[in-house]
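Entry 14. Structure prediction run on the chain below.
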Amino acid sequence: MLWTSFGRAPGTTIRACRGRCAQRPADACACEDPGVATTFALIYTYTDDTELRDATRPAHRDYLRPLGEDGTMLAAGAWAPGEDPGGLLIFRVEDRAAVQRIVDNDPFSTAGVVARAEIREWAPPLGPLAGALTGQG
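Output returned:
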């Protein structure tokens, strides 16, 4: 299944795969078992250690940047000031385990910034991006 990824040049498509090639441009896919990408919301709750969070943020962003560039991560950001510390990250990957691997290797997790990471499959039925986020658009 091909889908247009967010954050890529118009007309660029990628295929989510369950095999060793993960997510790459469709013409570079060497996977024998292409899967269907699913959208997941990752909800981070941070500890109250602002100093640790600030010190780790550059490594966290460096880690996430390639995931945004290759279309795996669709959006990410912290909650607005005044909200409890945490953030929301949206991924389009083959399964929940792929998101868990991202969490497990995120510097925010390994450094102890993340107090809780909640992964939820997300299939929004309405809105201008709904079709693309559910693979129907």
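Residues 1-34 have pLDDT under 50 and may be disordered.
Filed with the rest of this week's runs.
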